[in-house]
Amino acid sequence: MFISFMVFSIAHMLITLYxxxxxxxxxxxxxxxxxxxxxxxxxxxxxxxxxxxxxxxxFRHNKHCEPGVYTLFALCEYLVVxxxxxxxxxxxxxxxxxxxxxxxxxxxxxxxxxxx
Length: 116
Fold this sequence. Notes:
Number of strands: 0
Structural class: mainly alpha
Strand content: under 5%
Oligomer: single chain
Mean pLDDT: 87
Helix content: over 70%
């Protein structure tokens, strides 16, 4: 299950970095875009590094069963998840000038009635 999470997480990070790099090229003066891309890049590299370390600790634990190695593996797993959360948190820089509004439109559009 964790491998699936990592495959899709890495794919998402790569696609996001690719797209944001092209956005930066279209507007090089946008400070928030530059800041967002910088943090996305740092967090992605950190995430991948920690993931490789977690693989190393996992296989080392399975092969040698040394004390404390599985703890290091678990710590790396937590850091991978936290760095993924922080990567998604950079959306603050991407959407900080936008207002999102949730509105009830049932009264404005009578065709949208609740089923009885």
